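ARCHIVE CARD
Drawer: 12
Card no.: 0347
Subject: one protein chain, sequence and derived structure
Cross-reference: see card 0346
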Amino acid sequence: MVAGDIAWLLTASALVLLMTPGLAFFYGGLVRAKNVLNLMTQCFMIMGLVSIIWVLWGYSLAFGPSIGGFVGNPLTHLGLAGISGAEAQSFAMFQMMFAIITPALIVGAIADRFKFTTLIVFVALWSTLVYSPIAHWVWGEGGWLFTMGALDFAGGTVVHISSGFSALVAAIVVGKRSGKLDKFKPHNIPYVLLGTGLLWFGWFGFNAGSALAANDVAVNAFLVTNTSAAAGALMMMFLSMRSTGKPSAVMFACGAVAGLVAITPASGFVGPVAAILIGAGVGLVSWFAIQFKNKRGWDDSLDVWAVHGMGGVWGALATGLFASSAYGLGVDGIFSGGDISVFTTQIIAVVATIAYAGTVTFILLKVLDKTIGLRVDAKDEEAGMDISVHAEEAYN
């Protein structure tokens, strides 16, 4: 790896890390004022916790020598043993940033009611037992989905499907927030837009950085990332206008994030026209997923499942449809004349990720509920998480 490639990977790592504070603002603006500090602190806590876990054993589980295609050997790179030199360390650091943001996405589904101490334990277990194994399946040499040829350039299955469906399971297991859900409104929409901007900016590192070099693939990934985000944002804004007669700033923001999610697995394989179709398509998918969730009465507080889970599903499947060898990685999807096996492999990857992440998340939450509890008590929830958990306030 030449010096320019290392410099780009370091830059991309910093961009991806910035996405977690961006997520904190995005989520923080969507909750009520009495819970914003708690929600943002959860995101920042995860930055610290997962950084340590990744160094100690997470990286080895994800990228160590394969054990049966399921997980890496946790002892090979314990404490990043054997990871030396700029190329190896920059890759480990870049992947750390993905490991950080993935569990942070889940907190949006359980906002306003989840115990902070329980969240620490849950994130440590989830990162170890869910994220690292799935990362190994898809990206680790010898991982079973890697061997099958599953396409996930930057994390559609590994990051978004795993967190999005885990979030839905968590929302259902934890239960609804107290009070009338239709009365809970975003307390600071400028925060939501600021968070969207930071996520959009950081996502260039997320996707273009996954080329692991400053090359043609990275440039195209950068281009299609922006294109899909724009298409998703406009689609959800137009849908809000069609529904209410008013262009919703929140829906524009959600659409932008959904567009970024959907292009993530495809960004190394498709061109700008396909990116428009992927972004516009996910705007529809996520919009109708939100309506479906509301009808079912699921209190996924900040629509993590609809945006990340279903956005990731659409993106992974769309990769099998629109992938083209013209964009440097030698893979053609169905619409580019490729074999249908490319698409069926994507279906297998989607189903396996949903089933594994959902099942393990359910088991973890049930065990934690029986031992240390999942929810704050009703009095603390009513007072607000900022005061009851942190004894601090976002606003005086």
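Annotation on reverse: Residues 129 and 360 are 8 Å apart (CA to CA). The chain has a mean pLDDT of 97.
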